[in-house]
Write a structure and sequence with these properties.
Layout: H1 9-20, E1 23-27, H2 34-38, E2 45-48, H3 52-57, H4 61-65, E3 71-75, H5 83-91, E4 98-103, H6 106-116, E5 121-125, H7 131-134, H8 139-145, H9 149-152, H10 157-178, H11 185-197, E6 201-202, H12 205-212, H13 216-228, E7 232-237, E8 251-254, H14 257-263, H15 269-273, H16 278-294, E9 302-305, E10 311-318, E11 321-327, H17 337-345, E12 348-355, E13 361-364, E14 367-371, H18 375-378
Parallel strand pairs: 1-4, 1-5, 2-3, 3-4, 7-9, 11-12, 12-14
Antiparallel strand pairs: 6-8, 7-8, 9-10, 10-11, 13-14
Helix pairs in contact: 8-14, 10-11, 10-14, 12-13
């Protein structure tokens, strides 16, 4: 197996998890690179549960797995949730193999993992390419096309857009039914498109329900489907001890900027530059980059907003201290009254203003402007 000290990014994290945990799960949307990442690690056996031959090999799973040693990889594990109790039994035996499981639907994996593999399961969430994977010069391309490898690396913007359209269709027509979810593809496509219009805004179930001609409960169900398959992020509000009236509904983001742009028919850089959704698109794109850089889990990230209009785009805690990020789609962002209110009300240790430019500078005490391209190189809790 590779030495984690000789690698970086997700691969280094994966190596460390596989070395320390009996079962490691890579979770993320389909075709985001989970299988490619797993193939960079030596394994004694691999099973792809979309391959009929491998499914046949696992008709008697205990016989197939208990004799193996080393690292065993099982791809598309959500197709066989019955394997989780067996994995628990196997990893509790002496000289058992370690397992690396890959899945593209979170609820079943999380539920089965918490019930069957408590204390034995480590998870790595994957979301496609990052700036650290492609280099800082790729920022515009990655923002426009999103992080799915085949979209990012396409020969042209047109080819990339076509791939994303095919991905959306396949996701709705095949992947969703394969998860046992019975929602007409046209209905979910329409809802997904509606969410793209409110990307980065407060999620209001009643308004979406009226637009769809359906109930709040149904809208919540549709959001849950897209969230559980890693297509959208609901960012919860942070409640602080304050006399101010706070916003208590979550914000909604499409996780992949390329999917957002395809749903909005934004297929070129010129179209993105002049689009009304440009600032919201930047916010979502930068949020995903920063979330992965911070290393916090989804449930540990929040936004903060008051009814009077003060807001902080991203808030989290580390070692008992509060930290914040504001996303500004401008080359020379300035300190706003809202930033100062958030700094004081949340008692932030530091607030970073992340922008698409190239320079880093101190705006005020405890407030620093930093380019997204430098977020990994200059990130520090010692600031």
């Amino acid at each position: 197996m590779l030495d984690p000290s000789e690698t970086r990014g997700e691969l280094a994290t994966l190596l460390e998890l596989c070395a320390s945990s009996p079962v490691t799960a890579i979770l993320g949307p389909r075709q985001c690179g989970k299988t490619t990442l797993s193939r960079q690690i030596e394994a004694s056996a691999r099973f792809d549960l979309e391959n009929p031959r491998d499914l046949a090999r696992l008709e008697s799973p205990q016989l197939a797995l208990e004799r193996l040693t080393g690292l065993v990889v099982i791809d598309e594990i959500q197709r066989r949730p019955d394997l989780f109790p067996l994995l628990r039994y196997l990893v509790d035996q002496p000289n058992s193999p370690r397992f690396l499981i890959l899945g593209s639907a979170a609820p079943e994996l999380l539920r089965q993992g918490s019930e069957s593999l408590a204390g034995r399961l480590a998870m790595l969430r994957l979301g496609g390419f990052r700036l650290t994977d492609l280099g800082t010069s790729s920022q515009e391309r990655l923002w426009l096309r999103g992080g799915f490898p085949r979209s990012t690396l396409a020969q042209s913007d047109r080819e990339s857009s076509r791939w994303r359209e095919d991905y959306i269709a396949t996701f709705l027509e095949r992947d969703i039914p394969n998860l046992g979810i019975r929602v007409p593809p046209t209905t979910l496509r329409r809802f997904w498109s509606m969410l793209s219009h409110v990307h980065g805004q407060i999620l209001t179930l009643s308004e979406l329900g009226r637009s769809m001609g359906t109930t709040n409960h149904t809208v919540r169900h549709y959001v849950d489907i897209l969230e559980s398959t890693f297509m959208v992020r609901t960012l919860q509000p942070w409640y602080s001890n304050t006399s101010k009236r706070l916003v208590k509904s979550p914000k909604i983001y499409l996780r992949d900027s390329g999917i957002l742009h395809r749903l909005q028919a934004i297929d070129s850089w010129s179209a993105l530059e002049g689009h009304p959704l440009r600032s919201a698109s930047w916010e979502g794109f930068a949020l995903e980059e920063c979330a992965r850089s911070i290393g916090a889990r989804d449930g540990e990230l929040y936004f903060w907003a008051t009814q009077a209009g003060a807001e902080l785009d991203l808030f989290w805690q580390h070692e008992g201290k509060g930290w914040g990020i504001e996303f500004k789609c401008a080359d020379a962002p300035r300190v706003t009254r809202s930033m100062r209110i958030a700094l004081d009300e949340l008692n932030l240790q530091h607030l970073w203003v992340v922008h698409p430019g190239r320079e880093r500078w101190q705006l005020e005490d405890r407030i620093t402007a930093i380019p997204l391209t430098d977020i990994d190189a200059h990130w520090s809790y010692e600031t």
